[in-house]
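task queued by scheduler; priority normal; single chain, no ligands, no partner chains; default sampling; output format set to structure tokens
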Amino acid sequence: MEVSLIFKIAAVGILVSVLSQVLKHSGREEHAFLTSLAGLLLVLYWLVPIIVNLFENMKKLFDF
């Protein structure tokens, strides 16, 4: 796994956290929820190929 991916995930987490707090304090809880959901989906979009690759490698490892 690349270190840049970890930094990207951390940056998205910080950005989503700040935006969510700003939106909640301005009375837009629905938009804050959608912002959090979008951040989660973006991170999952980055992580799913890595997880699939991990399971494929594990399958190859234990395949006799």
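post-processing summary
- The chain has one domain: 3-62.
- The chain has a mean pLDDT of 94.
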